[in-house]
Amino acid sequence: MKKIIMLGVLFIMSNLKAYQLPKPTGRFHVGTKSYHWIDKSRSRFEGVALEKYVPFETSQAEIDDHPQRELNIQVWYPAQADDDAKKAAYDEAAARLWTQWCKTKGDTSSQAQEYFDNLQTNSIVDAPLSDAQQEYPIIICSHGYTVQRCVHASLCEELASHGYIVFAIEHTGTSVLTELPDGRTVGCAFPTVSGICQQLVEMRVKDVKFLLNTLENLDEKNMLYERLDLDKVGIFGHSMGGMTAVHASMQDQRIKAGACVEGPVLSADYFPEKGEKKPFLFLFAETFDEKFGNQEMLDFFGMQQPEFVPTYKKFVENFTSDCFEVTIKGTHHGDFCDAALYKKHVTVINDEFEMGVIDGEYLTQINRNYLVDFFNTFLLQQKEALSVLDYPEVVIKKI
Known about the structure:
alpha/beta
């Protein structure tokens, strides 16, 4: 009887599919941990008038009871660990939301459920920080509108494996759904008037500033206390996260280099009068102008068509030193996050999420290489920027 049971267990296990994010290429193992930090100086949706957007999953009573701005922060870092240390499963809340979203888009199969239930990361939860260095440079990750911090896990793991401590902010109110530690949920702000995007981006920029302020004042009990190189801070983001990276880099001199992935530059009305010029990388899909250059999208940004290109040029001329523009053929807007990896296994994502024809794992390799190479060059001064990268799908120019 025991043999029959054991054979049954082995049969079930052999038929369970295991999915994993691409293995990081750096020399460090990767650890991860999460924080819940409260900015007591700000209200939950500071800078955005309540009557100008439609929140969901969030009642006015709940906002009144918890008025301060709460942020979930996930950190990936170089870890002290063994090769066979247990790796963390993909974020449970995100897996649930992706599965639900796929069902609303017509996924009647078990593809999404199976994939997200069995997706593994390469990170070890709460692993000790590596003692290979006393201090590590910092990268801030800002996610896109209506997604979550974990959609850039593959990029964050890669950067951490190369010796960066990466902080991914979940921007409460522009994440599809933020689940707080006590079980409360905060929904996404869906704008109902033109131009509200600018206020949402400004709210996110303040999140970045709050994060840096917090890192400068960590309690000595925190694992990261006196282990952060606060003179070497970079930022990258996708879509609205890219806008956040652009505007945070202009406003905060602690940020030394930035990368905007598939995000436009907002109106020059939001530029500071002057600022330090910094290295910057733009990663674009070949459909970027088509997606962001139409007036319907520009209305969301509070811009007019004639502003679109001049605003970008003004940022490049006035606020960047070494600036690179990388366009990747065969891509669309959704390819620049981990959805590029999901689409191979969940058909509805490929159909519904603005995906290109390029292979997702190959594109993730390209995106990883450009980000690591860029930050290695301009935060660590290790080599000439983007000099050894050569992909037939990539068009790169220094601007």
